[in-house]
Amino acid sequence: MQDPISSGETSFASVLPKVERQRLHDTVVGHLRNFIVEGVLKAGTKLNERELCETLGISRTPLREAFKVLAAEGLIDISPNRGATVASLSATEILDTFELMSGLEALSGELACERITPVDLAEIKALHYAMLACRAQDDLSGYYNYNRQIHDRINQAARNSALRQTYLAVNRRLQALRFRSNFQKTKWDSAIHDHDEMLVALEARDGKRLAAILRQHLLDKRDAVLNLQAAEAEAAPAASKT
Q1: Domain HTH gntR-type, which positions (predicted)?
Q2: pLDDT tens readout for residues 35-76
């Protein structure tokens, strides 16, 4: 069979737009995910398609495609009658999901200590120092980016595909809440201390120690999120009276 490209039936030019469309799709999904994670779009917010299209400089088709991806990740809810809304978790869902995540993180740490390579460890250490630099500059967005990568690299170092898929699915639902857990500087500094201890345990290949640190680290984040939500709920009635 003759090659369609060499025969002149098609050309590379006809293929390139598909690549560009995929880049646009990934870019739109990435921007919206960051808006949700960093609280630009808060939980419960109804997503205005016209405003988002103007903000991102896109048409409604790629926006709606991005909505489908984010809905599959659990970051937004799509209703035939209400449209798309940023997903929100109840207190019970937060408790249950962080509890599950703490177990997944703990198992990741234990397996990583058995299977991590020197290259893996060097990359995690580099991310750790970059994260510390962001903390010194009060750059929460940059800090969270490196923080997320560190947890992700530990999970990858566990080299367990079933764990990896479950970890990714559960973690997507918690990204915005994990970001919010560092809003208070005392909690932020406590998280930094945990990461220092994580690195020590990882270098020592102490799986039980790293598992314990990671489990408590996630439970502390859960408590910080719940306390923050309770404080916001208490302040809301007072604000509405002013």
Answers
A1: 22-89
A2: 998 888 988 999 999 999 999 999 999 999 999 999 998 899
